[in-house]
Amino acid sequence: VKSVRRLKLSHSCKLPVTSLFIIIIAGQNVFPKDPYIEVGSSINIVCQNNVQGKIYWTLNSERIDKSWPVTINSSHSVLSLLNFTHSSATLQCHSANTQVLGGTIIRTYTKPSNMSCILTDTIGDSWFMCTWEHQTDSSLKINYTVLWWLKVTAVSDHLLVEWKPTYKVQRKYRCQVKYSTVWIVKIENVKSCSNYTVAVRCASESAPWSDWSQEETVLTKLNQSDVKLHLWRKVAEADENRVRKVRAMWAVRKSLIATPYKQHMTGVDHMETSCDNSICDVNQDAHRINLKVFHNKSLFVEDSVYVPAIGERLPQVTNIQTSTFEGVILVSWKAPREPVSGYMIDYTHNGNIYSWKETKYTNTTLFDLLDKKPYNITVTPLFDDKTGHSTQAHQICSNVGDPGDFTNVNVQAKHKSAFVSWSVKSQEACRGAVVNYIIFYSTQDGPQLNVTVDNTTQHISLKDLNPNTQYSVYVKAIAHTGTTKSSERLFETKRFGEHTFSLSSICTKLQPSNEGMYRF
Ligand SMILES: *[C@@H]1O[C@H](CO)[C@@H](O)[C@H](O)[C@H]1NC(C)=O
Ligand SMILES: *[C@@H]1O[C@H](CO)[C@@H](O)[C@H](O)[C@H]1NC(C)=O
Ligand SMILES: *[C@@H]1O[C@H](CO)[C@@H](O)[C@H](O)[C@H]1NC(C)=O
Ligand SMILES: *[C@@H]1O[C@H](CO)[C@@H](O)[C@H](O)[C@H]1NC(C)=O
Ligand SMILES: *[C@@H]1O[C@H](CO)[C@@H](O)[C@H](O)[C@H]1NC(C)=O
Ligand SMILES: *[C@@H]1O[C@H](CO)[C@@H](O)[C@H](O)[C@H]1NC(C)=O
Fold first, then answer.
1. Where are the beta strands (DSSP E) in 384-507?
2. Are residues 140 and 4 in the same domain?
3. Cis upstream peptide for 32 (omega within 30°)
4. What's the CA-to-centroid distance between 333 and ligand 5, angstroms?
5. What is the pLDDT of residues 155-206, one digit of tens each?
6. Domain with 360 in it: what CATH number?
7. Which residues does ligand 5 sit against, CB inside 6 Å?
8. Domain annotation covers residue 139
9. Which residues form the domain of 47?
10. Of 10, 252, 395, 516, which is most buried, counting CB atoms within 10 Å of its CB?
């Protein structure tokens, strides 16, 4: 690597070196001692004054005017030098009687800037041609060292950062590497599959640090052991040809988001087997479903799950009990006689979406269920690398709600009575069973009256009404798990002398909706 230097020399003042040293030795009360700072930066200089009274500051023997910020307390005076550009200057602190209390020499440096490198090709030889600018005193002899780093290698649990000087460096130099991470995936404490940004800076021995290099971003590799496939399968009943549909399901562990891996399903096991997406057709014999996850065309991680043969003698759980409590389902069962290592519980509310979890115990709790849905729950024992036969529990609702909604409420009014009938939505899953119905009715001025009937009755005749009067009526369905109220209906009882029969049938036809009102 060759480097081309372009120097920009600034005109800086020459130091009155001899006079300075005498002054410095004179006082020890000014800190920091002889700082070396970057040109244009700021620094606070502290003067400790044990003498009472005012003090003042001089810069290169000239008194500093009042525009410079100074903070004073009983024992210290702090001068803030902002945007300091002198290449070197002597700062002194004086007591009111012009006695020098102390001093310090502030020197500044500039760093090379605007560095750029381009790859050049001269007759088959590739070179980096680097240029930079440096504003500095022409009298200084400066050796430049260009360090270049090739390379940040990322594996799953560490980064390797390498750099090289362009040519043999005489002096020792030190470097710092800074890195920060942006988690893509956080798997417990493992830092695999994460984006890191890395930058390096160096300095020769006691010299100031170079600027940070440009940041390089690397992605650490995903550690195979961080990926758990959590594979399971669901075997349907065999059809007339003894072919069973096996649905394979897997989930990369929940903490792992974003899985840009090609997923391959293969059903292999000395039987001819066809798999379409995650569904495989298998015959009555035992099978093993293999899941292979490929990353960049190479096998990354794999797992397999057993599908028993029809009629195979295998352990099976019995006596599954289910109950619900505040939206979770508690499941327990009796262990098979044979020793097993654990149980897989799978559950679904629609036959398309399955959840599954493993336990060592003979009970489990199912969380994160959809509200008021009927769940089919299956328990399968696990042992060695096989599974036993599955046992399905009676369907159970995640929770049971109100009775079903009313579909309509009809009223046929006479002079002194009204016939009210109603119906509710038939047998929706997870609806509370109606215990009884209460019919509430009143005139506009009240009072509200009620009649209760049991769940086998869906009509009632309201008696002792006043003729030619407007009434309102609604019905409440009462279940142990809640109540449902019908919409309110208004009706008017007949005047004496009206023919009720034909009018009520006309009114029924005119009736636009359940919410409408009977008008005569
Ligand atoms: C005065 O200021 C100096 C420098 O900021 C500080 O170290 C010191 O503690 C201060 N003294 C008092 C008494 O506040
Ligand atoms: C600069 O380089 C020359 C030639 O390699 C060497 O003799 C000299 O000691 C170097 N100076 C510093 C300050 O490193
Ligand atoms: C992957 O993680 C495991 C467990 O944390 C660790 O023992 C192993 O060294 C890691 N592998 C690599 C390549 O980092
Ligand atoms: C639940 O199980 C019953 C009884 O085996 C079955 O008829 C029904 O189709 C199942 N429903 C779902 C959604 O799997
Ligand atoms: C399983 O049953 C045991 C004993 O009855 C109980 O302590 C435990 O909490 C239950 N576990 C679950 C997940 O329900
Ligand atoms: C039904 O009416 C009776 C008598 O007026 C009253 O005591 C009772 O509270 C009412 N029931 C309801 C559910 O409002």
1. 386-387, 391-392, 396-397, 406-413, 418-424, 434-443, 449-454, 459-462, 470-479, 482-485, 489-492
2. yes
3. yes
4. 11
5. 777 778 887 776 666 677 888 888 876 554 443 444 566 777 888 888 877 7
6. 2.60.40.10
7. 330, 361, 363-365
8. yes
9. 1-152
10. 252
